[in-house]
Amino acid sequence: MELLIGYLAAILTTIAFLPQVLRVVVTKKTRDISRNMYIILTTGVFLWLVYGFIKSDLPIILANSITLLFTITILILKVTTKDEEE
Questions:
Q1: Number of Cβ within a 10 Å radius of residue 77
Q2: Do 61 and 17 form a contact (C-beta atoms < 8 A)?
Q3: From the CB of residue 57, how many other CB atoms can be counted at a distance below 10 Å?
Q4: Is pLDDT above 70 for 19?
Q5: How far is the C-alpha of 51 from the C-alpha of 3, rounded, in Å?
């Protein structure tokens, strides 16, 4: 049961980022996204990933590997995309 809860939590928290990643990739608009928040979040997710490796915890490793890819994608687009004024 413990492992099931871990995998379910991992799946839900990871796919929660998917709509934002898709929107940013498709629209290339990042104006309303906080760069500093994504820097902090990406750092935190990276540390969770390190923790998962230290603990050999597969749900933490899988979830944070994918989430790290999502947050890095958003952060890179935030830093490199110049949103036009509307």
A1: 18
A2: no
A3: 17
A4: yes
A5: 17
* Distance of alpha carbon 38 from alpha carbon 47, whole angstroms: 14
Q: Using alpha carbons, list the distances in angstroms from residue 70 to 2, 9, 40, 48, 86.
A: 26, 17, 14, 14, 26
> How far is it, in rounded angstroms, from Cα 47 to Cα 55?
12
**Using 50, 70 and 90 to split pLDDT, how confident is the model at 84?**
low
31, exposed or middle or buried, with CB in 10 Å at 0-12, 13-18, 19+?
Answer: exposed
Q: Report CA-CA distances (Å) from 75 to 5, 16, 25, 82.
A: 29, 16, 11, 13
Amino acid at 31: R
Convert the pLDDT of each residue in 36-83 to its tens digit. 999 999 999 999 999 999 999 988 999 999 999 999 999 999 999 876
| Beta strands in 1-86, from DSSP E residues, in sequence order | none
**pLDDT given at position 6:** 86
